[in-house]
Each structure stands twice: as structure tokens, then as C-alpha cells.
UniProtKB/TrEMBL annotation:
Signal peptide: none annotated. InterPro entries: AsnC-type_HTH_dom, Dimeric_a/b-barrel, Tscrpt_reg_AsnC-like, Tscrpt_reg_AsnC/Lrp_C, WH-like_DNA-bd_sf, WH_DNA-bd_sf. It comes from Flavobacterium kayseriense. This is Lrp/AsnC family transcriptional regulator. Keywords: DNA-binding, Transcription, Transcription regulation. Gene3D superfamilies: 3.30.70.920, Winged helix-like DNA-binding domain superfamily/Winged helix DNA-binding domain.
Length: 151
């Protein structure tokens, strides 16, 4: 069941998108509603999973991770996906993992410091996970944009 958002929920989310560090009192003041209402709404949105957290967005390139790849993973048996995902979670440089349809079972995003780091991640950490049949990577050359769905 999807959560139903009213106009205040949407306005609060938009305020958080502008600056996730803004105090609840600042949101309340901007929207001319009570601080308590903002606090209750944000807690409800978190409990419902509409907002999955309020955390910094790290620019990997600024901290030395100059390489990124999108990697499709083919499995020997799709029923091994849960175990393989748990192994992928142990690799900090794997930042995203999706179930997909088509040629692959899983699709991951990997960040690396340089090409040698990327090679080691692929060949020495990912390809050796039992149950992975094949990986196919495309090197990311930069993000044109990334955004939330429009509310």
C-alpha cells in the first residue's frame, strides 16, 4: 500500500530536499505551521518509508574516487541472489544494487579510486563470489543529473 501524501507532506519534503540540515523550526516557519506538526509529519514519513533517511550526499570524486561503473551480474542460479547480495553488501565500494530483468539478475554501481582499484574490485572481490557466473561493466564518465521523483 502506498502512502498518501497531502500538501503539507509534499511541502515538508521539498524543504528537506533544498537542505536536509534545516531545523524543523525553520521548516515550520517557512510553511507557517507548528514545529510539532513538522516533527510529527517527518516521523510519520520516516515510519512509512516515504523518506528513508536524512543523510549527506557524498561527492565521491571530491574524496578520491574518480572511477565508477555500472555492472550487470549474471548468476549461475537466480535463487542464490539473496546470498550474493549479502556478499556484495560487504564491499563498501558497491554503493547500489538492483534486481533487474533482461540479461542480468543484478545491476550494481561500483566506485573506485582509479582503474587499478576498479580491476581489483571486479576480479578479486566480485567475480570470486560463489554463484556469480559473469559480470559486464560499463565505466561511468560522470553524472549528468540525479534527482528525486517530482512531487
Amino acid at each position: 500500500m502506498s502512502a498518501i501524501l497531502d500538501e503539507f507532506d509534499i511541502k515538508i519534503i521539498k524543504e528537506l530536499e533544498k537542505d536536509g540540515r534545516v531545523p524543523y523550526s525553520g521548516i515550520a516557519s517557512n510553511l507557517k505551521i507548528s514545529n510539532t506538526m513538522v516533527h510529527q509529519r517527518i516521523n510519520r514519513l520516516l515510519e512509512q518509508g516515504v523518506i528513508t533517511g536524512i543523510k549527506p550526499i557524498i561527492n565521491e570524486k571530491k574524496i578520491g574516487y574518480d572511477w565508477g561503473s555500472f555492472t550487470g551480474i549474471s548468476l549461475n542460479k537466480d535463487e542464490d541472489s539473496s546470498r550474493i547480495i549479502e556478499e556484495l553488501k560487504k564491499i563498501p565500494e558497491v554503493t547500489e544494487c538492483y534486481y533487474i530483468t533482461g540479461s542480468y539478475t543484478l545491476y550494481i554501481k561500483i566506485i573506485a579510486r582509479n582503474h587499478e582499484h576498479m580491476r581489483k574490485l571486479l576480479y578479486e572481490k566480485i567475480d570470486v563470489i560463489p554463484g556469480i557466473a559473469k559480470t559486464d561493466s560499463m565505466i561511468e564518465l560522470g553524472c549528468a543529473f540525479k534527482r528525486n521523483v517530482s512531487l
